[in-house]
Design brief:
By secondary structure, the protein is mostly helical. The protein has helices at 16-29, 48-65, 74-85, 92-108, 118-127, and strands at residues 42-45, 114-117.
Length: 128
């Protein structure tokens, strides 16, 4: 089993949320037949505000990626480029199709988004 961890440590306003959302969606796009993979990702932050912003941005990006004008979306092209740098070439049309599947899954299984605060995560660990 391969473990992949990404730690983003930066000051306020430096683009951490952008980087986390991009990384999370890039991981999801690697598994076209398994939109539920998004539930295997854990993202922790310090504040509820940041966690909610991350969830909101994921849904916003997926909506934009699933829209009619997906071919002009720079964030989608940035994800495509990030995948290329990892040796994975996916046509933009396929990313569009995958976005629709992931968005549908997230909207129907919102609670599977494991995005929250470090406090809440530790609390769940102690309770279990």
């Amino acid at each position: 089993m391969q473990n992949n961890y990404a730690i983003i440590n930066a000051s306020a306003g430096s683009g951490k949320t952008y980087a986390l959302v991009q990384s999370l969606l890039t991981t999801c796009f690697k598994h076209p037949l398994q939109p539920e993979k998004i539930g295997n990702i854990l993202a922790l932050t310090f504040t509820n505000k940041a966690a909610n912003e991350m969830k909101q941005r994921i849904i916003e990006w997926l909506k934009n990626f699933s829209s009619e004008n997906y071919e002009t979306n720079t964030d989608l092209f940035n994800i495509q480029e990030k995948l290329k740098n990892e040796g994975i070439s996916i046509p933009i049309k396929d990313l569009y199709e995958r976005s629709k599947k992931i968005l549908d899954y997230v909207l129907h299984h919102y609670s599977t988004l494991n995005i929250g605060t470090i406090d809440k995560f530790n609390s769940r660990l102690v309770r279990s």
